[in-house]
Amino acid sequence: MGLKQAPRAWYSKIESYFTEEKFQKCPHEYTFFIKKYSEKNMLIVSLYVDDLIFTGSNEGMFEEFKTSMKSKFSMIDLGKMRFFLGVEVKQFSEGIFICQQKYVKELLLRFKMDQCNKVCSPMVPGNKLIRDENGKFVDATNYRQMTGCLMYLLATRPDLTFYICLVARYMERPTEIHLAAIKIIMRYLKGTMDLGIWYKRNEKKKLVGWSDSDYAGDLDDRKSTSGYVYMLGSSAISWSSKKQAIVTLSTTEAEFVAAASCACQGIWLRRILEELGQSQKCTVIKCDNSSSIKLSKNPVMHGRCKHIDVRYHFLRFNKGRCGRAQPLQHNGATC
Protein backbone atom coordinates (compact mmCIF):
# COMPACT_ATOMS: atom_id res chain seq x y z
CA MET A 1 0.00 0.00 0.00
CA GLY A 2 3.01 2.27 -0.33
CA LEU A 3 2.57 3.07 -4.02
CA LYS A 4 1.47 6.54 -5.09
CA GLN A 5 -1.73 5.18 -6.65
CA ALA A 6 -2.67 3.29 -3.47
CA PRO A 7 -4.94 5.99 -1.97
CA ARG A 8 -6.99 6.25 -5.16
CA ALA A 9 -7.17 2.46 -5.49
CA TRP A 10 -8.39 2.17 -1.90
CA TYR A 11 -11.01 4.87 -2.38
CA SER A 12 -12.29 3.20 -5.56
CA LYS A 13 -12.60 -0.09 -3.70
CA ILE A 14 -14.43 1.32 -0.67
CA GLU A 15 -16.64 3.47 -2.90
CA SER A 16 -17.66 0.37 -4.88
CA TYR A 17 -18.55 -1.37 -1.62
CA PHE A 18 -20.78 1.50 -0.49
CA THR A 19 -22.49 1.59 -3.89
CA GLU A 20 -23.22 -2.15 -3.71
CA GLU A 21 -24.68 -1.67 -0.21
CA LYS A 22 -27.10 1.01 -1.51
CA PHE A 23 -25.31 3.96 0.06
CA GLN A 24 -25.53 7.35 -1.64
CA LYS A 25 -22.33 9.37 -1.95
CA CYS A 26 -22.81 12.98 -0.89
CA PRO A 27 -22.28 15.09 -4.05
CA HIS A 28 -20.77 17.91 -1.97
CA GLU A 29 -18.40 15.81 0.20
CA TYR A 30 -17.00 12.68 -1.42
CA THR A 31 -15.98 10.98 1.83
CA PHE A 32 -19.54 11.10 3.14
CA PHE A 33 -21.95 8.21 2.49
CA ILE A 34 -25.61 7.97 3.48
CA LYS A 35 -27.97 4.99 3.42
CA LYS A 36 -31.63 5.89 3.83
CA TYR A 37 -33.95 3.17 5.11
CA SER A 38 -36.90 5.55 5.29
CA GLU A 39 -37.55 9.27 5.53
CA LYS A 40 -36.50 9.37 9.19
CA ASN A 41 -34.12 6.40 9.40
CA MET A 42 -30.64 6.66 7.94
CA LEU A 43 -27.09 5.41 8.43
CA ILE A 44 -24.31 7.96 7.96
CA VAL A 45 -20.67 6.99 7.35
CA SER A 46 -17.74 9.40 7.26
CA LEU A 47 -14.48 8.15 5.76
CA TYR A 48 -10.95 9.41 6.41
CA VAL A 49 -8.57 7.20 4.41
CA ASP A 50 -9.12 3.83 6.15
CA ASP A 51 -10.64 5.20 9.37
CA LEU A 52 -14.44 5.24 9.51
CA ILE A 53 -16.97 6.68 11.91
CA PHE A 54 -20.68 6.08 11.56
CA THR A 55 -23.92 7.03 13.23
CA GLY A 56 -27.57 6.40 12.56
CA SER A 57 -31.09 6.00 13.84
CA ASN A 58 -30.77 2.72 15.77
CA GLU A 59 -28.36 0.04 16.97
CA GLY A 60 -29.70 -2.53 14.50
CA MET A 61 -28.27 -0.52 11.61
CA PHE A 62 -24.88 -0.43 13.31
CA GLU A 63 -24.66 -4.17 13.80
CA GLU A 64 -25.78 -4.86 10.24
CA PHE A 65 -23.18 -2.43 8.88
CA LYS A 66 -20.34 -3.82 11.01
CA THR A 67 -21.15 -7.40 10.00
CA SER A 68 -21.18 -6.40 6.34
CA MET A 69 -17.87 -4.52 6.58
CA LYS A 70 -16.11 -7.37 8.38
CA SER A 71 -17.22 -9.80 5.67
CA LYS A 72 -15.48 -7.70 2.98
CA PHE A 73 -12.54 -6.08 4.80
CA SER A 74 -10.15 -6.78 7.64
CA MET A 75 -11.66 -4.46 10.24
CA ILE A 76 -11.16 -3.63 13.92
CA ASP A 77 -14.24 -2.52 15.83
CA LEU A 78 -13.15 0.07 18.41
CA GLY A 79 -16.63 0.36 19.86
CA LYS A 80 -18.21 3.60 20.97
CA MET A 81 -16.09 6.48 19.71
CA ARG A 82 -13.74 7.98 22.29
CA PHE A 83 -10.89 9.15 20.03
CA PHE A 84 -10.82 9.95 16.34
CA LEU A 85 -7.72 11.32 14.59
CA GLY A 86 -6.40 12.75 17.85
CA VAL A 87 -9.70 14.33 18.88
CA GLU A 88 -11.21 13.20 22.18
CA VAL A 89 -14.95 12.50 22.01
CA LYS A 90 -16.99 12.37 25.21
CA GLN A 91 -20.58 11.22 24.74
CA PHE A 92 -23.32 11.96 27.25
CA SER A 93 -27.09 11.69 27.24
CA GLU A 94 -27.27 15.50 26.93
CA GLY A 95 -24.87 15.75 23.99
CA ILE A 96 -21.29 15.31 22.78
CA PHE A 97 -18.14 17.15 23.88
CA ILE A 98 -14.98 17.18 21.74
CA CYS A 99 -11.55 18.41 22.79
CA GLN A 100 -7.81 17.69 22.38
CA GLN A 101 -6.63 17.74 25.98
CA LYS A 102 -4.38 14.68 25.62
CA TYR A 103 -2.83 16.14 22.45
CA VAL A 104 -2.12 19.46 24.20
CA LYS A 105 -0.32 17.69 27.05
CA GLU A 106 1.85 15.78 24.59
CA LEU A 107 2.55 18.95 22.59
CA LEU A 108 3.70 20.91 25.66
CA LEU A 109 5.89 18.01 26.77
CA ARG A 110 7.45 17.64 23.32
CA PHE A 111 8.52 21.30 23.15
CA LYS A 112 9.54 21.47 26.84
CA MET A 113 6.70 23.84 27.75
CA ASP A 114 4.97 21.52 30.21
CA GLN A 115 6.33 23.47 33.21
CA CYS A 116 5.61 26.94 31.78
CA ASN A 117 3.51 29.58 33.53
CA LYS A 118 -0.06 30.07 32.36
CA VAL A 119 -1.32 33.26 30.70
CA CYS A 120 -4.90 34.42 30.19
CA SER A 121 -4.54 35.52 26.54
CA PRO A 122 -2.89 33.83 23.51
CA MET A 123 -1.30 37.12 22.46
CA VAL A 124 0.02 40.22 24.20
CA PRO A 125 -2.70 42.91 23.73
CA GLY A 126 -1.70 45.45 21.10
CA ASN A 127 1.24 43.37 19.87
CA LYS A 128 1.62 43.33 16.06
CA LEU A 129 3.91 40.80 14.39
CA ILE A 130 6.02 41.90 11.42
CA ARG A 131 8.88 40.53 9.35
CA ASP A 132 11.94 41.18 11.48
CA GLU A 133 14.88 41.25 9.08
CA ASN A 134 17.14 42.83 11.71
CA GLY A 135 16.18 40.42 14.48
CA LYS A 136 17.96 37.29 15.62
CA PHE A 137 16.87 34.31 13.55
CA VAL A 138 15.82 31.09 15.28
CA ASP A 139 15.77 27.45 14.14
CA ALA A 140 13.23 27.50 11.28
CA THR A 141 12.71 23.72 11.39
CA ASN A 142 11.77 23.78 15.06
CA TYR A 143 9.51 26.80 14.47
CA ARG A 144 7.70 25.01 11.65
CA GLN A 145 7.24 21.91 13.79
CA MET A 146 5.72 23.99 16.59
CA THR A 147 3.42 25.80 14.16
CA GLY A 148 2.31 22.59 12.47
CA CYS A 149 1.50 20.97 15.81
CA LEU A 150 -0.50 24.02 16.85
CA MET A 151 -2.43 24.05 13.57
CA TYR A 152 -3.72 20.54 14.29
CA LEU A 153 -5.45 22.00 17.35
CA LEU A 154 -7.73 24.06 15.13
CA ALA A 155 -9.99 21.02 14.76
CA THR A 156 -11.51 21.85 18.16
CA ARG A 157 -10.19 25.31 19.11
CA PRO A 158 -11.78 28.11 17.08
CA ASP A 159 -10.58 30.58 19.74
CA LEU A 160 -6.99 30.04 18.56
CA THR A 161 -7.58 30.22 14.81
CA PHE A 162 -6.45 33.81 14.23
CA TYR A 163 -3.38 33.59 16.47
CA ILE A 164 -2.05 30.32 15.05
CA CYS A 165 -2.64 31.42 11.45
CA LEU A 166 -0.82 34.66 12.27
CA VAL A 167 2.38 32.97 13.51
CA ALA A 168 2.22 30.58 10.53
CA ARG A 169 2.92 33.52 8.19
CA TYR A 170 6.50 33.75 9.42
CA MET A 171 7.69 30.16 8.95
CA GLU A 172 10.19 31.10 6.23
CA ARG A 173 12.48 33.36 8.32
CA PRO A 174 11.32 33.30 11.94
CA THR A 175 13.05 35.44 14.55
CA GLU A 176 12.94 35.63 18.33
CA ILE A 177 9.78 37.78 18.37
CA HIS A 178 7.90 35.16 16.34
CA LEU A 179 9.12 32.33 18.56
CA ALA A 180 8.05 34.33 21.62
CA ALA A 181 4.56 34.69 20.11
CA ILE A 182 4.31 30.91 19.68
CA LYS A 183 5.42 30.33 23.27
CA ILE A 184 2.72 32.69 24.53
CA ILE A 185 0.13 30.59 22.67
CA MET A 186 1.52 27.48 24.36
CA ARG A 187 1.40 29.17 27.76
CA TYR A 188 -2.24 29.99 27.07
CA LEU A 189 -2.83 26.34 26.17
CA LYS A 190 -1.34 25.27 29.50
CA GLY A 191 -4.26 26.92 31.28
CA THR A 192 -6.99 26.05 28.77
CA MET A 193 -6.16 22.52 27.64
CA ASP A 194 -9.59 21.24 28.69
CA LEU A 195 -11.50 23.65 26.42
CA GLY A 196 -13.47 22.20 23.51
CA ILE A 197 -16.87 22.30 21.83
CA TRP A 198 -20.16 21.08 23.29
CA TYR A 199 -22.85 19.82 20.90
CA LYS A 200 -26.24 19.68 22.60
CA ARG A 201 -28.74 16.95 21.87
CA ASN A 202 -32.28 17.89 20.77
CA GLU A 203 -31.36 21.51 20.13
CA LYS A 204 -32.93 23.60 17.39
CA LYS A 205 -30.46 23.34 14.50
CA LYS A 206 -30.47 26.80 12.94
CA LEU A 207 -27.40 27.74 10.89
CA VAL A 208 -26.03 31.25 11.54
CA GLY A 209 -22.78 32.75 10.26
CA TRP A 210 -20.62 35.43 11.89
CA SER A 211 -18.24 37.39 9.68
CA ASP A 212 -15.55 39.91 10.59
CA SER A 213 -12.27 41.36 9.37
CA ASP A 214 -9.52 43.65 10.50
CA TYR A 215 -8.44 46.42 8.13
CA ALA A 216 -4.87 46.48 6.80
CA GLY A 217 -3.87 44.43 9.83
CA ASP A 218 -0.74 42.96 8.24
CA LEU A 219 1.92 45.65 8.67
CA ASP A 220 4.15 44.14 5.98
CA ASP A 221 1.78 44.21 2.99
CA ARG A 222 -1.26 46.01 4.51
CA LYS A 223 -3.63 43.19 3.61
CA SER A 224 -6.63 42.52 5.82
CA THR A 225 -7.63 39.25 7.48
CA SER A 226 -11.03 37.61 6.96
CA GLY A 227 -12.60 35.56 9.72
CA TYR A 228 -15.86 33.68 10.11
CA VAL A 229 -17.56 31.10 12.27
CA TYR A 230 -20.76 29.14 11.61
CA MET A 231 -22.95 28.08 14.50
CA LEU A 232 -25.50 25.29 14.32
CA GLY A 233 -27.72 26.05 17.26
CA SER A 234 -25.30 27.10 20.00
CA SER A 235 -22.29 25.13 18.73
CA ALA A 236 -19.53 26.04 16.28
CA ILE A 237 -19.27 23.70 13.28
CA SER A 238 -17.02 25.63 10.87
CA TRP A 239 -14.53 28.48 11.27
CA SER A 240 -11.68 30.16 9.44
CA SER A 241 -9.12 32.95 9.62
CA LYS A 242 -7.30 33.82 6.42
CA LYS A 243 -5.37 36.76 5.02
CA GLN A 244 -7.20 38.32 2.09
CA ALA A 245 -5.70 37.98 -1.37
CA ILE A 246 -6.04 41.69 -2.18
CA VAL A 247 -5.22 45.01 -0.54
CA THR A 248 -8.55 46.61 0.31
CA LEU A 249 -9.00 50.38 0.31
CA SER A 250 -11.52 50.73 3.14
CA THR A 251 -13.04 48.92 6.09
CA THR A 252 -16.20 48.51 4.01
CA GLU A 253 -14.33 46.65 1.29
CA ALA A 254 -12.45 44.48 3.81
CA GLU A 255 -15.71 43.51 5.56
CA PHE A 256 -17.41 42.88 2.20
CA VAL A 257 -14.64 40.52 1.08
CA ALA A 258 -14.82 38.70 4.43
CA ALA A 259 -18.60 38.33 4.15
CA ALA A 260 -18.22 36.92 0.62
CA SER A 261 -15.84 34.18 1.82
CA CYS A 262 -18.24 33.47 4.69
CA ALA A 263 -21.11 33.12 2.21
CA CYS A 264 -19.11 30.59 0.14
CA GLN A 265 -18.74 28.34 3.17
CA GLY A 266 -22.38 28.89 4.11
CA ILE A 267 -23.60 27.64 0.74
CA TRP A 268 -21.56 24.44 1.13
CA LEU A 269 -22.76 23.88 4.71
CA ARG A 270 -26.39 24.32 3.66
CA ARG A 271 -25.95 21.65 0.99
CA ILE A 272 -24.38 19.23 3.47
CA LEU A 273 -27.15 19.82 6.01
CA GLU A 274 -29.77 19.25 3.33
CA GLU A 275 -28.23 15.85 2.58
CA LEU A 276 -28.59 15.06 6.29
CA GLY A 277 -32.24 16.01 6.29
CA GLN A 278 -31.60 19.31 8.07
CA SER A 279 -32.76 21.76 5.39
CA GLN A 280 -32.30 25.38 6.40
CA LYS A 281 -34.41 28.44 5.84
CA CYS A 282 -32.72 31.71 4.89
CA THR A 283 -29.29 31.73 6.57
CA VAL A 284 -28.24 34.93 8.33
CA ILE A 285 -24.65 36.19 8.19
CA LYS A 286 -23.91 38.55 11.07
CA CYS A 287 -21.67 41.50 10.19
CA ASP A 288 -20.78 44.64 12.16
CA ASN A 289 -20.21 47.02 9.23
CA SER A 290 -23.36 48.79 8.05
CA SER A 291 -21.78 50.00 4.79
CA SER A 292 -20.85 46.49 3.66
CA ILE A 293 -24.37 45.30 4.52
CA LYS A 294 -25.86 48.06 2.37
CA LEU A 295 -23.39 47.20 -0.40
CA SER A 296 -24.58 43.57 -0.33
CA LYS A 297 -28.18 44.71 -0.81
CA ASN A 298 -27.89 47.70 -3.15
CA PRO A 299 -26.83 46.97 -6.77
CA VAL A 300 -25.76 50.59 -7.38
CA MET A 301 -22.02 51.03 -8.06
CA HIS A 302 -20.82 53.88 -5.85
CA GLY A 303 -17.63 55.77 -6.59
CA ARG A 304 -15.76 54.33 -3.62
CA CYS A 305 -16.68 50.69 -4.26
CA LYS A 306 -16.97 50.28 -8.04
CA HIS A 307 -13.44 48.85 -8.19
CA ILE A 308 -14.36 45.81 -6.06
CA ASP A 309 -13.84 42.61 -8.02
CA VAL A 310 -17.02 41.11 -9.45
CA ARG A 311 -16.35 37.76 -7.76
CA TYR A 312 -17.12 39.29 -4.37
CA HIS A 313 -20.48 40.60 -5.58
CA PHE A 314 -21.97 37.11 -5.75
CA LEU A 315 -23.00 37.91 -2.16
CA ARG A 316 -25.67 40.13 -3.73
CA PHE A 317 -26.70 37.42 -6.15
CA ASN A 318 -27.24 34.89 -3.37
CA LYS A 319 -29.10 37.32 -1.09
CA GLY A 320 -32.62 35.98 -0.72
CA ARG A 321 -31.69 32.63 -2.28
CA CYS A 322 -29.63 31.28 0.59
CA GLY A 323 -28.95 34.04 3.08
CA ARG A 324 -28.81 37.67 4.07
CA ALA A 325 -26.45 39.98 5.93
CA GLN A 326 -27.62 41.42 9.22
CA PRO A 327 -26.15 44.21 11.36
CA LEU A 328 -24.98 43.74 14.95
CA GLN A 329 -24.86 45.94 18.01
CA HIS A 330 -21.70 44.09 18.99
CA ASN A 331 -19.91 41.50 16.90
CA GLY A 332 -18.67 38.53 18.87
CA ALA A 333 -16.76 37.24 15.86
CA THR A 334 -13.03 37.62 15.54
CA CYS A 335 -10.80 37.12 12.53
UniProtKB/TrEMBL annotation:
Domain Reverse transcriptase Ty1/copia-type, by residue range, is 2-124
Q: Which domain of life is it from?
A: Eukaryota
InterPro entries linked: DNA/RNA_pol_sf, RVT_2
Provide the transmembrane region boundaries.
none
The record's listing under SUPFAM superfamilies reads: DNA/RNA polymerases (SSF56672)
What is the name attached to this protein's record?
Copia-type polyprotein
Species the sequence originates in: Trifolium pratense
Q: Tell me the organism's taxonomic lineage.
A: Eukaryota, Viridiplantae, Streptophyta, Embryophyta, Tracheophyta
